[in-house]
């Protein structure tokens, strides 16, 4: 029998057509990572689960061990059933089955005929905060439907029990009372437990778990009732109807053939895996079946490539228009033109037109861009940060997901054209708090000149705003100097409690690209990791310069040899410079976009995972040093990429 589990139910809510592809793991490609060790490093979810169990010291675990290589569903259900005969009991990973619905519940707390269903998530909340509290909005919806599904199965299997649903979450109002909370839950690659976590129980002796823990229970009875009554919906189906339909489709291994949803299609994980192209694409299967696409259609540019596209509903209402050749300005909502920069829709239309005309020349607003460049005083400083967050704080006094700034790189483009990798900072020492030293080192680096400072996206500005808040509440001796430095190069965030005037505000080079420059080779992406190869493809100056060794062209480096050549061709095509670098750890050789259930990892995810590995896994100093060196190389390339992009923009405006 094929069981519809809670993960499969959630998949059905995203798109019921996915259930067919998920059922055929050896036939259809899935670009989601399924490496448990990597998942543990990335999300911290398994660590949170182990911490949650410590709240219930008498809890009994239904082991996840497999019999003869297969999972015995009935055995787990029977074990749970026997435990539930007790008047009072706490069960971890309790198994419940009704027809072909099967769930494992993180924590079941039974008292008489009452059951507390507790779902543990590595997600943070803040009570009373309209943006952070648990409500039926945004990315809370899948979690809430998950719990509602579990409650449904338990009540069908045991109608005599009264079930109260809870989420156990990282509480933003709590702070860690100890240093290294996450290090008490060690990620172990060789651990055969489901979570892959070794709990350092010896270090926990004598600790008050309730005082130490940053987790809190949230009763979600009201929201779940609204789901059950169909007052809250994700799809057009009623709640129980969706369960029944998905269960039948999954058990029968039938393609659900549900209505196509372009917004969901864009994020579909069942696409061809470049590592193993022998597997089929569920994404292509769907579009062939629903839109009658041919193999040739998949080679044509389509709306999924359009930057920041928001009008999926219009495309579907207009007979499922998807190819760029069929998209009109009306599909974009009209063009909102600007006098001095490209608007969002104007940029989208430029992308569409260039795609139709097979025009690979960059589009640039030369005069407006030149005016900008002329107003930026040299020398030009380029900085990039790497930070990490974890649901279980790294240090005492920190809240869940409080940021740790552990690395930066700093390049300078001098007036004479010399490129200097001037400074870098990294701290991957286990248990050492780097934030204040990070700011001190950055201050020392940038105060050596008064030239323009560039970041790529607003990330660096936001990070420094958060470091400012930490410093203001600290007792460090150089507080005033660090505050003055941060305020000199940053603009206040929207949620800042006070304002200040910046003497030397950082320039967002990504915004410059969005406003004044479009390169067709990026296919709409503005990520520096996509923009750099596109520049290599189109810039005569950059191709000529960087096809020589950095020693020949006056580019200094702290991490690469003088004979390093950044631009090379393979079969006549430019090789992506980022592909030259080895992964920062052996596990990181895939796409991190789909990894995290809790706080989403965006750009820089590989660095975040690598830092986590240095903090809460056991490793030799050689391995720690190898990770450190890889991180230094990646971060250096990020700031050098910014330099190359800036040189290209100057080339276009000269």
Describe the structure.
By secondary structure, this protein is α/β, with parallel strands linked by helices. The chain folds into three domains: 33-222, no CATH class; 262-367, no CATH class; 368-654, no CATH class. It has helices at 6-14, 18-22, 36-43, 45-54, 73-83, 141-157, 201-204, 209-212, 221-228, 239-252, 262-266, 282-291, 312-317, 344-356, 366-374, 435-446, 459-472, 479-489, 509-516, 528-538, 540-546, 605-616, 621-653; strands at residues 60-61, 88-98, 101-111, 114-125, 162-171, 185-187, 197-199, 215-219, 363-364, 380-388, 404-413, 419-426, 453-455, 507-508, 517-518, 569-570, 573-574. A hairpin with a 5-residue loop joins strand 11 and strand 12.
Proportion of residues in helical segments: 25-40%
Shape: globular
Spatial strand arrangement across the major sheet:
1-2-3-4-5-8
| Overall average pLDDT | 90
Q: Report the sheet-strand fraction.
A: 5-15%
Terminal Cα separation, in Å? 69 Å
Radius of gyration: 27 Å
Number of helical segments? 23
Number of strands: 17
Low-confidence segments, given as residue ranges, are: 588-603
Instruction: Please outline the major beta sheet.
Output: 6 strands, mixed
**Domains, number:** 3
Could you say which structural class the secondary elements and strand pairing correspond to?
alpha/beta
Brief overview:
The chain has 654 residues and is an alpha/beta fold.
